[in-house]
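Tokens for chain A. Residues wanted.
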């Protein structure tokens, strides 16, 4: 874990230095931008995610310090940790509760969600929306601070040290993302580069997270049909899908989030243990007759997400797909 953290954070520093201070041509700028983008993705998956779950270290101060890397990337760890841990991890895939599948009318992720004419094409335009996920995090923080937006939050309005850390993180991000680069490049070039890097980050984040839940092999509880939540552990297994678990490169880069089932069952355990845990989880599921869901490849999971989104583009929406075992 510490090696991965150093590798990812070092990659961000190297990519940033290269992009801002050492680029001499457009091809080199593209390479530097990709280095920065994928290093930031690495921090998001491998460092802040475990840390803000309390699973990076047994020491709280280590988790808090490394969880703050999310603030340095532009989003609030205070808001993210509360919304993610206390909403998505409790109400996984529940149509009217899980804020992660409520896209404000831009797309329809459940049969319970209101249908709009634009949703006919959501399987086409959704990929572009995912490119804006990173920017959306920044805007959502402003909504929460200034307009009281409560999208699945349970934590109180930040005060004292929490507010100071949140504001300090925003100041740091704006400084390194815009103010410093503008000393060397035009405003248009700085914003254009920022958007490009952000789009890469957003697209990868969107594909990885959606490939674990918004797919056609897991359960999507529909409140209007009177569906009741199963026991919590069973609910997590039936609403979560693993993918590409035999791919060690993706497992390393995704911070074990391709073992999403194990992550939902044991969110405070370091992701380096997920491969070993998955064998135990499968044995227990088989023993108790609980079906679990997996895709052998990342591509298969992404295609499943496409099928699920496409199935919800029309009215009336189809019934939820039943979970299938591997």
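Reply:
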């Amino acid at each position: 874990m510490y090696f991965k953290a150093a590798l990812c954070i070092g990659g961000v520093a190297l990519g940033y230095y290269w992009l801002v201070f050492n680029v001499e041509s457009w091809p080199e700028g593209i390479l530097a931008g990709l280095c920065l983008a994928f290093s930031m993705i690495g921090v998001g998956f491998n460092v802040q995610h475990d840390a803000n779950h309390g699973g990076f270290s047994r020491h709280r101060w280590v988790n808090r310090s490394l969880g703050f890397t999310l603030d340095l990337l532009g989003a609030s760890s205070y808001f993210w940790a509360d919304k993610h841990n206390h909403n998505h991890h409790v109400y996984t895939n529940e149509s009217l509760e899980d804020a992660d599948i409520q896209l404000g009318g831009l797309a329809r992720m459940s049969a319970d969600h209101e249908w709009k004419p634009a949703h006919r094409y959501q399987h086409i335009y959704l990929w572009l929306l995912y490119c804006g996920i990173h920017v959306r995090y920044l805007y959502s923080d402003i909504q929460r601070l200034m307009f009281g937006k409560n999208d699945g939050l349970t934590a109180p309005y930040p005060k004292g040290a929490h507010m100071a850390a949140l504001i300090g993180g925003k100041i740091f991000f704006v400084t390194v993302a815009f103010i410093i680069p503008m000393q060397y490049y035009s405003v248009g070039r700085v914003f254009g580069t920022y958007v490009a890097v952000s789009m890469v980050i957003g697209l990868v984040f969107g594909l990885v997270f959606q490939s674990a839940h918004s797919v056609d092999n897991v359960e999507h509880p529909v409140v209007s049909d009177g569906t009741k939540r199963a026991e919590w552990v069973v609910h997590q297994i039936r609403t979560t899908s693993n993918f590409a678990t035999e791919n060690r490169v993706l497992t390393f880069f995704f911070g074990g989030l391709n073992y999403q089932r194990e992550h939902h069952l044991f969110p405070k355990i370091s992701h380096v243990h997920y491969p070993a845990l998955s064998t135990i989880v499968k044995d227990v599921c088989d023993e108790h007759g609980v079906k679990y869901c997996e895709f052998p490849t990342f591509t298969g999971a992404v295609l499943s997400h496409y099928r699920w989104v496409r199935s919800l583009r029309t009215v009336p929406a189809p019934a939820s797909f039943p979970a299938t075992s591997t």
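The chain has one domain: 2-311. The beta strands are 241-243, 293-295.
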